[in-house]
Amino acid sequence: MSLVNMRDLLSKAEKGKYAVGSFSVANMEMLMGAIKAAEELNSPIIIQIAEVRLNYSPLHLIGPMMVAGAAKAKVPVAIHFDHGLTLEKIKEALEIGFTSVMVDGSKYLLEDNIKLTKEVMDEAKRYNAAVEAEIGIVGGSEDGSENLSVLCTSASEAKRFYSETCVDALAVAIGNAHGTYLENPKLNFEVLDKINKDVDVPLVLHGGTGISNDDFKKCISLGIRKINIATATFDSVEKNIRKLYEQSEEADYFKLHQKEVEGAYLNVKRHIEVFGSENKA
């Protein structure tokens, strides 16, 4: 149990044909809520933070806390550095004890993405950490600062990318987008099915907020083994806090703390039940 390598979680998920939720956190309360949900449902879980969020949650502060939370958990927890943009921060995450890192070279040409990913994999090997990469362009952006258009992943490029990198997990673009969808997402299951048949690697779905339960399950049936959830958890925490102050004008800090934990817990629990990882710890 406790702190584990993401590679092992995804290998088990592949055998069991379910997905492991990878949930973004921004503070101690969200970390506590996410782990509480996983422990209650006896589910493996991935806890993550993206590089673009470090202005709000500095890595040297939140990183050790995430690792410590995983180490004391009653279920397997992988700690993941999401959307790593700089080698400096990826290396820092590895030094802190993150058990997986994502290098996001999706904006580069395929050859440059391969080169960058190999560089990160060489560094991650020193820590026996897993590496995730991305092919194609997932819509939006992790912090909402850009409105990137979706560029669906090419199955042939994904096959070449994996053959040259042997990356541990591959994020794909199939019509999914970061942040809040302005309309119901239309996922391209044909693209996903082809990639899954052509490339023998656990696939990752980013932009999970707003995707229907049925579409989640369809993605899982077609090889998705890791699903990222960020915005939905942030929104759940905010709504839970708002309810507190609507009910009482004199709520103290500790009630606020409890509502933040609860907000994260409720959203993580809901997604774990959809992803099929309950009782898979």
Structure, explained:
- It is a single chain.
- This protein is of the alpha/beta class and 281 residues long.
- Helices cover 47% and strands 16% of the residues.
- The chain has helices at residues 6-16, 28-40, 59-71, 87-96, 110-125, 155-165, 189-198, 213-221, 231-247, 253-275; strands spanning 2-3, 20-24, 45-50, 76-84, 100-103, 130-135, 169-172, 203-205, 224-229.
- It has an 8-stranded parallel beta barrel, surrounded by 9 helices.
- α5 (110-125) packs parallel to α6 (155-165).
- Mean pLDDT is 91; it is low at 139-149.
The percentage helix is 40-55%
Indicate the radius of gyration in whole angstroms. Answer: 18 Å
- The chain-level structural class is alpha/beta
Mean pLDDT: 91
Widest beta sheet: strand line-up: 2-3-4-5-6-7-8-9
- Identify the overall geometry: globular
Low-confidence stretches: 139-149
In N-to-C order, the SSE pattern is: EHEHEHEHEHEHEHEHEHH
Beta-strand fraction estimate: 15-25%
Sheet with the most strands, sense and barrel status: 8 strands, parallel, barrel
Amino-to-carboxy terminus distance: 8 Å
Number of helices: 10
* Strand count: 9
Element layout with pairings:
Elements: E1 2-3, H1 6-16, E2 20-24, H2 28-40, E3 45-50, H3 59-71, E4 76-84, H4 87-96, E5 100-103, H5 110-125, E6 130-135, H6 155-165, E7 169-172, H7 189-198, E8 203-205, H8 213-221, E9 224-229, H9 231-247, H10 253-275
Parallel strand pairs: 1-4, 2-3, 2-9, 3-4, 4-5, 5-6, 6-7, 7-8, 8-9
Helix pairs in contact: 2-3, 2-10, 3-4, 5-6, 6-7, 9-10
